[in-house]
Design a protein that fits this description.
Length: about 240
Protein backbone atom coordinates (compact mmCIF):
# COMPACT_ATOMS: atom_id res chain seq x y z
CA UNK A 1 0.00 0.00 0.00
CA UNK A 2 1.44 3.34 -1.11
CA UNK A 3 0.58 6.19 1.29
CA UNK A 4 0.76 9.81 0.18
CA UNK A 5 0.27 12.87 2.37
CA UNK A 6 -0.98 16.00 0.61
CA UNK A 7 0.40 18.62 2.94
CA UNK A 8 1.01 22.35 3.26
CA UNK A 9 1.28 24.58 6.30
CA UNK A 10 -0.41 27.31 4.23
CA UNK A 11 -4.08 27.28 3.39
CA UNK A 12 -5.48 28.30 0.02
CA UNK A 13 -2.76 26.66 -2.08
CA UNK A 14 -4.89 24.01 -3.80
CA UNK A 15 -4.05 21.17 -1.41
CA UNK A 16 -7.52 19.67 -1.08
CA UNK A 17 -8.27 20.17 -4.78
CA UNK A 18 -5.10 18.19 -5.50
CA UNK A 19 -6.03 15.45 -3.02
CA UNK A 20 -9.48 15.08 -4.61
CA UNK A 21 -8.25 15.11 -8.21
CA UNK A 22 -5.21 12.91 -7.61
CA UNK A 23 -7.29 10.32 -5.75
CA UNK A 24 -9.64 10.19 -8.73
CA UNK A 25 -6.72 9.97 -11.17
CA UNK A 26 -5.30 7.10 -9.13
CA UNK A 27 -8.57 5.19 -9.23
CA UNK A 28 -9.12 5.55 -12.98
CA UNK A 29 -5.56 4.31 -13.47
CA UNK A 30 -6.66 1.07 -11.86
CA UNK A 31 -5.45 1.58 -8.29
CA UNK A 32 -7.82 0.78 -5.47
CA UNK A 33 -7.71 4.11 -3.67
CA UNK A 34 -8.77 5.49 -0.30
CA UNK A 35 -8.83 9.24 0.32
CA UNK A 36 -8.53 9.96 4.05
CA UNK A 37 -9.93 13.36 4.99
CA UNK A 38 -7.81 14.30 8.01
CA UNK A 39 -8.76 17.99 7.95
CA UNK A 40 -11.58 18.73 10.45
CA UNK A 41 -12.99 21.26 7.97
CA UNK A 42 -13.96 18.26 5.82
CA UNK A 43 -13.49 19.89 2.42
CA UNK A 44 -12.53 16.64 0.66
CA UNK A 45 -15.62 14.95 2.10
CA UNK A 46 -17.69 17.91 0.85
CA UNK A 47 -16.28 17.69 -2.67
CA UNK A 48 -17.16 13.99 -2.87
CA UNK A 49 -20.59 14.50 -1.25
CA UNK A 50 -19.74 11.94 1.44
CA UNK A 51 -21.20 12.51 4.91
CA UNK A 52 -20.05 10.74 8.06
CA UNK A 53 -21.62 7.34 8.62
CA UNK A 54 -22.67 6.37 12.15
CA UNK A 55 -20.81 7.65 15.21
CA UNK A 56 -17.39 8.11 13.72
CA UNK A 57 -15.13 10.49 15.66
CA UNK A 58 -11.57 10.83 16.92
CA UNK A 59 -12.08 8.12 19.57
CA UNK A 60 -13.16 5.57 16.98
CA UNK A 61 -10.30 6.67 14.74
CA UNK A 62 -7.65 6.27 17.44
CA UNK A 63 -8.94 2.79 18.25
CA UNK A 64 -8.31 1.84 14.62
CA UNK A 65 -11.98 1.26 13.88
CA UNK A 66 -11.86 2.54 10.33
CA UNK A 67 -13.41 -0.08 8.07
CA UNK A 68 -16.95 0.43 9.33
CA UNK A 69 -16.83 4.13 8.55
CA UNK A 70 -15.24 4.11 5.10
CA UNK A 71 -17.70 5.25 2.45
CA UNK A 72 -17.96 4.70 -1.29
CA UNK A 73 -17.66 7.87 -3.38
CA UNK A 74 -19.79 6.64 -6.25
CA UNK A 75 -16.70 6.29 -8.47
CA UNK A 76 -15.35 2.76 -9.04
CA UNK A 77 -12.24 1.94 -7.06
CA UNK A 78 -12.37 5.10 -4.95
CA UNK A 79 -13.47 5.23 -1.30
CA UNK A 80 -13.30 7.96 1.30
CA UNK A 81 -12.76 8.08 5.06
CA UNK A 82 -14.71 11.20 6.05
CA UNK A 83 -13.38 13.86 8.39
CA UNK A 84 -15.00 14.64 11.73
CA UNK A 85 -14.98 17.96 13.56
CA UNK A 86 -13.44 16.23 16.59
CA UNK A 87 -10.28 15.72 14.49
CA UNK A 88 -9.40 19.30 15.48
CA UNK A 89 -8.37 17.83 18.85
CA UNK A 90 -6.42 14.85 17.53
CA UNK A 91 -3.14 16.48 18.55
CA UNK A 92 -4.21 16.41 22.19
CA UNK A 93 -5.14 12.73 22.02
CA UNK A 94 -2.08 11.47 20.13
CA UNK A 95 0.76 9.70 21.88
CA UNK A 96 3.76 12.04 21.78
CA UNK A 97 6.25 9.16 21.76
CA UNK A 98 4.35 6.88 19.40
CA UNK A 99 6.05 7.69 16.10
CA UNK A 100 4.29 4.83 14.27
CA UNK A 101 0.89 5.44 15.86
CA UNK A 102 -0.93 6.50 12.69
CA UNK A 103 0.99 4.04 10.54
CA UNK A 104 -0.26 1.25 12.80
CA UNK A 105 -3.84 2.55 12.68
CA UNK A 106 -3.90 2.50 8.88
CA UNK A 107 -2.03 -0.80 8.60
CA UNK A 108 -5.35 -2.68 8.86
CA UNK A 109 -6.18 -1.38 5.36
CA UNK A 110 -3.03 -2.70 3.67
CA UNK A 111 -4.82 -5.62 1.99
CA UNK A 112 -7.77 -3.50 0.86
CA UNK A 113 -6.11 -0.61 -0.96
CA UNK A 114 -3.22 0.08 -3.32
CA UNK A 115 -3.09 3.79 -2.54
CA UNK A 116 -3.88 5.84 0.55
CA UNK A 117 -4.02 9.63 0.14
CA UNK A 118 -4.17 11.84 3.23
CA UNK A 119 -5.67 15.32 2.92
CA UNK A 120 -3.78 16.86 5.83
CA UNK A 121 -4.81 19.93 7.86
CA UNK A 122 -2.79 23.10 7.09
CA UNK A 123 -0.58 23.36 10.15
CA UNK A 124 2.64 22.09 11.71
CA UNK A 125 1.52 20.03 14.69
CA UNK A 126 1.95 16.60 16.22
CA UNK A 127 -0.72 15.30 13.83
CA UNK A 128 1.30 16.67 10.91
CA UNK A 129 4.41 14.96 12.25
CA UNK A 130 2.67 11.62 12.54
CA UNK A 131 1.04 11.88 9.10
CA UNK A 132 4.47 12.58 7.63
CA UNK A 133 5.87 9.55 9.47
CA UNK A 134 2.98 7.37 8.27
CA UNK A 135 3.42 8.33 4.59
CA UNK A 136 5.68 6.95 1.89
CA UNK A 137 5.56 10.30 0.13
CA UNK A 138 4.74 13.84 1.25
CA UNK A 139 3.58 16.06 -1.61
CA UNK A 140 3.29 19.82 -1.12
CA UNK A 141 1.51 22.26 -3.46
CA UNK A 142 3.44 25.51 -3.83
CA UNK A 143 2.06 28.70 -5.36
CA UNK A 144 4.90 30.47 -7.22
CA UNK A 145 5.21 33.28 -4.65
CA UNK A 146 7.79 34.20 -2.03
CA UNK A 147 5.72 33.14 0.98
CA UNK A 148 4.81 29.78 -0.51
CA UNK A 149 8.46 29.05 -1.37
CA UNK A 150 9.30 30.06 2.21
CA UNK A 151 6.72 27.58 3.50
CA UNK A 152 8.47 24.81 1.56
CA UNK A 153 11.81 25.78 3.13
CA UNK A 154 10.15 25.69 6.57
CA UNK A 155 8.77 22.22 5.85
CA UNK A 156 12.26 21.00 4.97
CA UNK A 157 13.50 22.30 8.32
CA UNK A 158 10.53 20.61 10.01
CA UNK A 159 11.53 17.33 8.37
CA UNK A 160 15.04 17.71 9.81
CA UNK A 161 13.69 18.60 13.25
CA UNK A 162 11.48 15.52 13.50
CA UNK A 163 14.03 13.22 11.85
CA UNK A 164 11.95 12.55 8.72
CA UNK A 165 13.62 11.49 5.49
CA UNK A 166 13.74 14.44 3.08
CA UNK A 167 13.86 12.00 0.15
CA UNK A 168 10.14 11.38 0.50
CA UNK A 169 9.30 15.09 0.22
CA UNK A 170 8.24 16.44 -3.16
CA UNK A 171 6.48 19.61 -4.28
CA UNK A 172 4.63 20.89 -7.32
CA UNK A 173 3.70 24.36 -8.47
CA UNK A 174 -0.01 25.01 -7.95
CA UNK A 175 -2.42 27.73 -9.10
CA UNK A 176 0.10 28.96 -11.66
CA UNK A 177 -0.95 32.08 -13.57
CA UNK A 178 1.10 32.40 -16.72
CA UNK A 179 0.10 36.05 -17.11
CA UNK A 180 1.98 36.95 -13.94
CA UNK A 181 5.69 37.58 -14.41
CA UNK A 182 6.38 36.74 -10.77
CA UNK A 183 4.84 33.29 -11.22
CA UNK A 184 6.80 32.66 -14.41
CA UNK A 185 10.08 33.88 -12.88
CA UNK A 186 9.60 31.80 -9.73
CA UNK A 187 8.78 28.66 -11.69
CA UNK A 188 11.83 29.21 -13.90
CA UNK A 189 14.08 29.65 -10.86
CA UNK A 190 12.90 26.63 -8.88
CA UNK A 191 11.36 24.12 -11.29
CA UNK A 192 14.62 22.28 -11.98
CA UNK A 193 15.30 21.65 -8.31
CA UNK A 194 15.03 17.98 -7.42
CA UNK A 195 12.24 18.54 -4.90
CA UNK A 196 9.82 19.72 -7.62
CA UNK A 197 7.77 17.59 -9.96
CA UNK A 198 7.74 18.87 -13.53
CA UNK A 199 3.96 19.16 -13.83
CA UNK A 200 2.39 22.56 -13.17
CA UNK A 201 -1.22 22.88 -12.02
CA UNK A 202 -2.65 25.99 -13.70
CA UNK A 203 -4.96 28.51 -12.10
CA UNK A 204 -8.21 27.74 -13.89
CA UNK A 205 -11.90 28.31 -13.35
CA UNK A 206 -12.50 24.55 -13.76
CA UNK A 207 -10.68 23.96 -10.48
CA UNK A 208 -12.39 26.85 -8.70
CA UNK A 209 -15.79 25.49 -9.75
CA UNK A 210 -15.17 22.23 -7.91
CA UNK A 211 -16.94 23.77 -4.91
CA UNK A 212 -20.04 24.21 -7.06
CA UNK A 213 -19.88 20.98 -9.07
CA UNK A 214 -18.62 18.89 -6.14
CA UNK A 215 -16.86 16.50 -8.49
CA UNK A 216 -13.26 15.99 -9.64
CA UNK A 217 -12.41 18.10 -12.70
CA UNK A 218 -12.02 14.92 -14.76
CA UNK A 219 -15.75 14.32 -14.22
CA UNK A 220 -17.05 17.87 -14.70
CA UNK A 221 -14.63 18.85 -17.50
CA UNK A 222 -13.05 15.73 -19.03
CA UNK A 223 -10.21 16.52 -21.40
CA UNK A 224 -9.66 19.98 -19.93
CA UNK A 225 -6.21 21.42 -19.22
CA UNK A 226 -6.78 20.97 -15.49
CA UNK A 227 -7.81 17.33 -15.91
CA UNK A 228 -4.74 16.53 -17.98
CA UNK A 229 -2.44 18.36 -15.55
CA UNK A 230 -3.68 16.39 -12.55
CA UNK A 231 -3.36 13.14 -14.48
CA UNK A 232 0.24 13.98 -15.44
CA UNK A 233 1.02 14.90 -11.85
CA UNK A 234 -0.40 11.62 -10.62
CA UNK A 235 1.72 9.67 -13.08
CA UNK A 236 4.82 11.51 -11.85
CA UNK A 237 3.96 10.72 -8.24
CA UNK A 238 3.29 7.05 -9.02
CA UNK A 239 6.40 6.68 -11.17
CA UNK A 240 8.56 8.12 -8.43
CA UNK A 241 7.10 5.68 -5.92
CA UNK A 242 7.67 2.68 -8.21
CA UNK A 243 11.17 3.75 -9.25
CA UNK A 244 12.21 4.21 -5.62
Amino acid sequence: MNSIAMYSSKGGVGKTAAAVNLSYASSIRGKKTLLCDMDPQGAASFYYRVPIKGKFNKKQFLKGRLKGFIRETGYPGLDLLPAHFSFRNLDIALDIDGQDQLKNIFAVLADDYDVLIFDCPPNMTLLSEKLIAASDQVVMPVIPTTLSIRALAQLMKFFDKIGADRKKLRAFFSMVERRKNMHLDTVKSYRKKKVFFRTLIPYLADVEKMGINRTPVAVSTPGSAATMAYDRLWMEIWKRRVSD
